[in-house]
Amino acid sequence: MFARLGVFAGPFSLPAAEAVGAPDEGRASGPGQVMETLGSLVDSSLVRAETGGGEPRFSLLETIRDDALERLAGGGWVQAHDRHAAYFQALAEPSEAELAGPGQLAWLGRLETEHDNAWAAMSWLVDQGHLDQATHLFLMTWRFWWLRGHLAEFARPGDEIVAGSEDLPAYQRAMALTGAGFILLAHGDLARAQTAFEQTLPLYRQTSEKLGVVLNATVLAVLGHLAATRHDYAGASKLLHQGQALVQEFRDEDLTGYDRLQHLLTVAFVDNFLGQVRLSQADNDAAARLFTDGLAVARRAHDRIPILISLYDLALSSQAQGDLAGAAGHLKEGLAIAAEAGDETSAAYYLEALAAVASQQDNPHRAVRLLSAARSQLEASGSGWLHAYVPRAPHDDAVLAALRARIGDAAYQEARTWGGSIGSRHARQYALE
Questions:
Q1: What pLDDT was estimated at residue 52?
Q2: Residue 336: which of 361, 307, 364 has the closest Cα?
Q3: Which residues contact 426 (CB under 8 A, 6 or more apart)?
Q4: Three-state DSSP class for 168?
Q5: Which phi and psi (to 5°) does residue 260 adopt?
Q6: How far apart are CA 398 and CA 151, in angstroms?
Q7: Which of 3, 185, 329, 415 is surrounded by the fewest CB atoms within 10 Å?
Q8: Residue at which a domain ends, from 55, 75, 95
Q9: In a domain, 242, yes or no
Q10: For residues 188 and 388, is the Cβ–Cβ distance under 8 A?
């Protein structure tokens, strides 16, 4: 059993140890035998006992884990890793109540606790070529990796999923390429993301699966968004309307669970991306109507991803309409939602947008503080996901230089120092004042 425990990449629970560590003939005997063995290993200082979430948890020091893995290499390596992956696949997949709303927060917390092991399970599936299982796990859990700032980990698996997807059946390959496309998009590799998304279109057309039709619409919406970022607004509108036509084939009652959530996410995507096109064309009122529609759909889904996109976009249209108080209200709501979900990077983008509003409200000192806090937070947490879906507020050195000219060197230095050292929690408290 000690050797099998080496597959755990981080602290683990008693049920996890039972699923992975018990010998084949003892797996049906319950946790008693495993608990006894764990107790012996703890007494021998080979395993450390911990507490977390009200349940006993265990871990191995890295050097001891290396020894366990070396022993496991002598026999049972694949079986132990397969058990580990199967257990954490099941643990990571959200129930319907955990897909969105209040239940999503509990699910996010559970996956954060099991993050290292969930990631190890994902990596094992990819490394072993089980791309259908890896893709399913990704599609079920991507909100966690996005909202909790773990996106950077997906650079290698994204490449491997693309490379290995050619051997999958059409529908599974389409889903694998979709997952890879979203990973590439979040990492800023727009050209390769577009290629991956475009490769899915003929594959999705071969399926009558409801989720396949919805994901086809999702891909069309994102391709429309990418066209808009290249200022190809006619092409963007065409793709977005194609996606819109697909999602309009379904009503809410036609879909349940994950399929319904993905459908509502896609409807919100289409509304927001069409709104961004209108905003770029200075049709601010039309943009505001589309963003409002997107927010209504996102709220119906109780899904934090489209809610954060919609509130950010709606704030931009409010700014363009001259409603700075309304813009600040939308941004403060989004900032609070991002903070509640533990989404540090999206919170930083909301700080940037609030800085732009503060600048327009003739409060350049506050703008410098907020921009500095946002920059510090992004340097610490990475670039996150929100930047790939919304027009980012002005934030570069030229913006700071213009603000410096407005308030003078001394006040500027004070605001920069304050923002860079205040910490994310206090920065949010300041922004919400």
A1: 64
A2: 307
A3: none
A4: coil
A5: -65, -45
A6: 28
A7: 329
A8: 75
A9: no
A10: yes
Rg (CA), the chain: 24
- Whole-angstrom CA distances from 26 to 13, 31, 34, 79 are 18, 9, 9, 15
Please say which residue of 42, 75, 108 terminates a domain: 75
Give, rounded to a whole angstrom, the gap between the first and last alpha carbons of the chain. Answer: 55
Nearest CA to 355 among 343, 364, 345? 364
At 323, is the secondary structure helix, strand, or coil? coil
User: What is the pTM for the complete model shown?
Assistant: 0.93
Say which residues have a Cβ less than 8 Å from residue 42's Cβ, sequence separation at least 6. Answer: 48, 49, 58
3-state secondary structure at position 429: helix
Dig out the tokens for 148 from the structure. Answer: 């909790």
Instruction: Yes or no: say if 112 and 145 are a contact pair by the CB < 8 Å rule.
Output: no
Q: Is residue 239 part of a domain?
A: no
Residue 51 is assigned to a structural domain of this protein: yes
135 vs 371, higher pLDDT: 371
> Residue 5 is part of a domain; what is its CATH number?
1.10.10.10
List beta partners, residue 50. Answer: 57
The residue written with tokens 């049906």 in the block is: 28
Q: DSSP secondary structure string, 334-377?
A: HHHHHHHHT-HHHHHHHHHHHHHHHHHTT-HHHHHHHHHHHHHH
Name the domain count of the chain.
2
Which residues make Cβ contacts (< 8 Å) with residue 60, sequence separation at least 6?
5, 6, 8, 46, 47, 48, 68
Return the amino acid letter for 323: D
Is residue 29 pLDDT above 80, yes or no?
no
Residue 65 within a domain: yes
Q: Which amino acid is residue 362, in one-letter code?
A: D
User: What pLDDT, on a 0 to 100 scale, did the predictor assign at position 26?
Assistant: 45
Pairing of β 48-52 and β 12-13: unpaired
Matching residue, tokens 């979430």:
53
Q: Name beta bridge partners: 58.
A: 12, 49
Predicted confidence (pLDDT) at residue 313 exceeds the cutoff of 80: yes
CA dihedral 248, 250, 252, 255 (to 10 degrees): -150
Structure tokens at 259: 């399929």
Q: Quick one: the chain helix, strand, coil %, rounded to 5?
A: 80, 5, 20
Of 188, 254, 185, 189, the C-alpha closest to 218 is: 185
Give the pLDDT score at 30. Answer: 53
